[in-house]
Here is the input.
Amino acid sequence: MAHLFDVFRQAATAVRPIIALVCAAVILLFIKQYTEFTDRIRPRPMQVSESRAAGQYDVRITCTFEARGNAFGRPALRVKFRDRVLIERTEAVAAGELVEVQDVPDVQVGWNEFLIEVTPAEDGSVAADSAFSLDNTAVAEAPTIARAVNIQIRRDDLIMAERVIWSSRSGPFGELVRIGVDQTAKEHEH
Here is the structure.
């Protein structure tokens, strides 16, 4: 019986390299099949082709308060589109004054985002008394004033998007306004 065990052990040691090669080949085959499978089920990246939208796009902004640049260099009103500044008003914008950006360039089919930033004028008495004073009574007596900014984005004088943003804070505030422009949008006749 011992002799049979020795024969089996010698045969097993001779076959070990073959078993290792077969195992390695099976593992490589599984890896190849897995990568082919994941390539088939992976979604293909979309081709992004930007095409210019038809029509003239305008942005109209009206504030219910006076907007004025502050001491930190912020403008009274700034409108950005595609990381470009369309308008930046450093002089005061009166309450109710219409600020318009006409013929916005490079509006594309798909989603377009406009960033509107406004800096309200600081009320001299409240700002001077509360910002640098150790007396907190001026802050407690100061009324909270809600401020609103009406934003319209128009295409050929038709409103594409309208948003009113509100703020009760005294500092600068803003809003990101998104519009979707459809490729099948028809030209409007005047």
The chain is about 30% helix and 30% strand. Residues 124-135, 186-190 have pLDDT under 50 and may be disordered. Helices lie at 2-41, 124-131, 137-141. Residues 2-41 form the longest helix (40 residues).
